[in-house]
Specification:
This protein is an all-alpha fold. It contains ten helices and no strands. The protein has helices at about 1-5, 10-20, 30-45, 45-55, 65-80, 95-110, 115-130, 140-145, 150-160, 165-179. Helix 6 packs across helix 7 (about 115-130). The longest helix is centred in the middle third of the chain and has 16 residues, at about 95-110. It is globular and about 55 Å long. About 35% of the residues are buried.
């Protein structure tokens, strides 16, 4: 608690770098790291946001992504709230990296061979990035509400759909409930 209370917009980028200094091979403590991401978003610390994104999303993301990475970016975007758009000045420098990461999340969410925690985390990211794609994921997410999917995926999909703000979401959910 003392460490977190001493963080500010000037030393937060250094904290992110130190936490992920081991590279992406080692997962940081999820709750603590995600709290720091939301703190950076709340402080509107552009430097910390940039460093965090660079530390979490590889420069050229591949499909070899861990659940914690999806969760981390989801936490950051949640903390940014309405500013979590491709047009946001806070994210403009990382726009391409986030878009690539989102595309990987789309694949991960539907990969039946992937572990449930990875799929659920990917679904969570899709819920925070509706505005990042020309093709919405409402149908993909609504399909995951089907009873033959694991309950963890159904819950993640419903939560993800709740972060959108268009009428298509209600239509997609109700359409699946009728089937």
């Amino acid at each position: 608690a003392a460490v977190v209370s001493s963080l500010n917009e000037h030393n937060l980028p250094t904290a992110f770098a130190a936490i992920t200094n081991a590279g992406l091979e080692r997962e940081p403590e999820r709750n603590f790291f995600n709290e720091l991401l939301q703190l950076a978003a709340g402080m509107k610390s552009e430097d910390a946001i940039q460093v965090a994104i660079q530390q979490v999303i590889p420069e050229r993301p591949t499909t070899d992504i861990a659940a914690w990475q999806f969760e981390a970016i989801t936490s950051l975007l949640a903390g940014l709230g309405t500013e979590a758009t491709p047009e946001s000045t806070r994210l403009v420098n990382q726009k391409d990296r986030i878009i690539s990461f989102r595309e990987i999340a789309e694949k991960g969410a539907t990969d039946t061979a992937a572990p449930l925690d990875l799929r659920s985390a990917a679904i969570g990211l899709l819920g925070r990035t509706h505005s990042w794609s020309d093709a919405t994921n409402f149908e993909l997410l609504a399909d995951l509400l089907q009873p033959f999917h694991a309950s963890a995926l159904q819950i993640a999909a419903l939560e993800a759909l709740c972060h959108g703000d268009t009428p298509e979401i209600g239509t997609a959910i109700l359409g699946r409930l009728r089937e």
